Amino acid sequence: MTGRRSRSPALPDPELDARGFVGARSVAERAGVSRSAVSRTFTPGASVSEETRRRVLTAATELGYHVNHLARGVSGRQTGIVCLVVADIDSPQPSRMARAITERLQEAGKVAVLLSVGGPSDDIAATLRRALNYRADATVVMSGTPAQSIVRECLDNGQRLILISRDDHIVGPDNIRLDNAGAARTALGLFLQAGCRRPAVVTTGLGTPSLSARTDAFVAAARAVGIEPQVVRQGQMTGYDNGVAAAHQLFAAPVRPDAVFCVNDITAFGLIDAARHVFGLHVPEDLSVIGFDNVQQAGWLSYRLTTFDHPVADIAAHVAALASKSRDDRMAPTRIELAPDLVWRRSVRI
């Protein structure tokens, strides 16, 4: 346990460690107590008298001492560190989710370490192995679907894994997922209520569990009422350009769809802009559109996009609760499914 020096010139020099930090021994000497008393003072729930606590805190303030939680965690059962493995951190939805989780972890006394999954060489397995070096209390995976082998390696090393919207067939980790299929069925129902009979769904060839669930459920719901929807799979990313490309594929055809469900909002924006400016269509009079994610731009006047929102606050609360469990309190993996919230705007005919 160490802390950065910040002392009054009138006080004698405290003993510093090799990096120039005030040590617990200096606090003990100043307070006239044992070093273990200093440790107990800064350990939540530890037994220490009020007088000892007062003397230790006074000495710590005078010397500018702060607890080194990392050193304490390495020598104990928990470090207080939670790693977040995130791809596309610049995109609105991953950024919003990472921020909410980080803030909730901080409220729970944890420190979030962000590990960004970058290019092709920076895969999920390599990133999870880096996370093991931190001896974190948990690692939250928001990107990719880890292979069972790296999951087993993490679990065998005492690492708790929390997957968000990942494949729930992986054995071992906790999983917090959305009812993507239910949302897709709701989207199809809204189109039918609006009188639309030529629906389409725009997705990618990426095939992540969440995107596949939205696509497959939409197609199944349409077929259940005797409609064969168009399915457009554009590229390996869910971006604005994919929405534009999908619009060219859909609206240049002799028979155009009158409703499109896009598996995320950014794709929907590209599709809407191309539909309007290239093909002269009006939303929602000629074309109803529903997205997914409820990013900030979905509420802009240019789009006023009906979409589904992630229950971000609930997800963050569940992550903090799972990450705060002790290693001795890890029974069967937790499986949590949350319903996305429908956000009604003006991109669907009434």
Automatic annotation (TrEMBL):
<keyword id="KW-0238">DNA-binding</keyword>
<dbReference type="InterPro" id="IPR028082">
    <property type="entry name" value="Peripla_BP_I"/>
</dbReference>
<dbReference type="InterPro" id="IPR010982">
    <property type="entry name" value="Lambda_DNA-bd_dom_sf"/>
</dbReference>
<dbReference type="InterPro" id="IPR046335">
    <property type="entry name" value="LacI/GalR-like_sensor"/>
</dbReference>
<dbReference type="InterPro" id="IPR000843">
    <property type="entry name" value="HTH_LacI"/>
</dbReference>
<dbReference type="Pfam" id="PF00356">
    <property type="entry name" value="LacI"/>
</dbReference>
<keyword id="KW-0804">Transcription</keyword>
<keyword id="KW-0805">Transcription regulation</keyword>
<keyword id="KW-0678">Repressor</keyword>
<dbReference type="GO" id="GO:0003677">
    <property type="term" value="F:DNA binding"/>
</dbReference>
<feature type="domain" description="HTH lacI-type">
    <location>
        <begin position="27"/>
        <end position="76"/>
    </location>
</feature>
<dbReference type="Pfam" id="PF13377">
    <property type="entry name" value="Peripla_BP_3"/>
</dbReference>
<protein>
    <submittedName>
        <fullName>DNA-binding LacI/PurR family transcriptional regulator</fullName>
    </submittedName>
</protein>
